[in-house]
Amino acid sequence: TEDELQAGFDATIGRNDRIEPRDWMPEGYRKTLVRQIAQHAHSEIIGMQPEGNWITRAPSLRRKAVLLAKVQDEAGHGLYLYSACETLGTSRGELTEKLIAGAQKYSSIFNYPTLSFADVGTIGWLVDGAAICNQVPLCRTSFGPYGRAMIRICKEESFHQRQGYELLMTMMRGTDAQRAMVQESVDRFWWPALMMFGPPDADSPNTAQSMAWGIKRNTNDDLRQRFVDMTVPQADALGVTLPDPDLRWNEERGAHDFGQPDWDEFLQVVKGNGPCNAQRLAHRRRAHEDGAWVREAAMAFARKSREQEAS
Ligand code: FAQ
């Protein structure tokens, strides 16, 4: 009966065991996972654009090779995540249609422009740094395919974070103009990076249920705090200033106090009114249309192979 299935599911979650695609799950659990994993996959794919913008203008062969490898990794992450989502019964094709129709979200951070090459370093340091903070606990998420995809993704994100930090460190050892370029980039990306963790816990409609289901392992505010505490010493080592006058160590809490991002701006960006939302979606839509012949050719090839096998 439904009650027994629910009890079995609850017991698996209670033991911190994994739910697998063939296991029974409540519809709400499936829906929440499809929502979160799809948003995550779309973020990886849309997230190729801001950095991709600099591939043709990287300042050296080495920087170009590193950047190409990173952007390719992001495509790979998107594909692992779409595959994880397919085990829940929603195809990659369907998810892509929803993304380009503007019916599914992707991370707010990718709606900000990349105005200088320093942004490539800042994205690696801060955006991949935030992604790691958020994703390491997701390796223990309750849905098997999502958790296993996260393990591999996190390993690659660590490399991404290090390449960004190394790029910024090199620029900080350069000229005054290069140092100014890094600071200007950090000033623009700091607050949007804090927004990546989602709204404050009090305004987060999904957190309580997602934590009860073991989909999320920490709240948005917990992870944001962890990110700030991790990043402050790195900023000191780099010699950049984080643009928050309220940022200071709180001895009593054993953590940093910090200011709040502009949550009205966050809501606007999530609603589609950020600086680059229209551009990002238009680009993705164009790429999808331009790739139609590849999908058709692959289908024709698959059909032919099946026919040959059958004859
Ligand atoms: N942007 O109730 P909550 C990367 C939405 S890293 C846009 O708190 P939840 C790597 C949220 O979906 C970035 N929308 O929601 C990379 C919900 O809307 P809905 C991707 C946001 O799910 C680096 C509503 O607000 N990482 O790509 C954002 O419990 C460099 C209410 O929020 C992930 O997706 C936001 N920032 O918690 C690639 C990680 N925040 O659906 C390239 C997995 C919230 O109800 C270059 N996801 N919303 O209409 C998660 O951990 C969670 O989904 C959260 C949000 C924490 C993002």
Task: Tell me what you see in this structure.
One of its GO terms (cellular component) is cytosol. It comes from Nocardioides guangzhouensis. One of its GO terms (biological process) is phenylacetate catabolic process. InterPro entries: Aromatic_CoA_ox/epox, Ferritin-like, Ferritin-like_SF, PaaA, PaaA_PaaC. With 311 residues, the protein is mostly helical. It is built from 13 helices and two strands. It has helices at residues 2-14, 27-46, 48-52, 61-86, 92-100, 118-135, 144-172, 176-195, 207-212, 220-238, 263-273, 277-290, 292-310, and strands spanning 248-250, 255-257. Strands 1-2 form a two-stranded antiparallel sheet. Strand 1 (248-250) and strand 2 form a beta hairpin. Helix 2 runs antiparallel to helix 4 (61-86), helix 6 runs antiparallel to helix 7 and helix 6 packs parallel to helix 8 (176-195). The mean pLDDT is 97. Phenylacetyl coenzyme A (FAQ) is lined by residues 35-36, 39-40, 43-44, 47, 74, 105, 107-108, 123, 127-128, 131, 134, 195-199, 204-207, 210, 216, 220, 270.
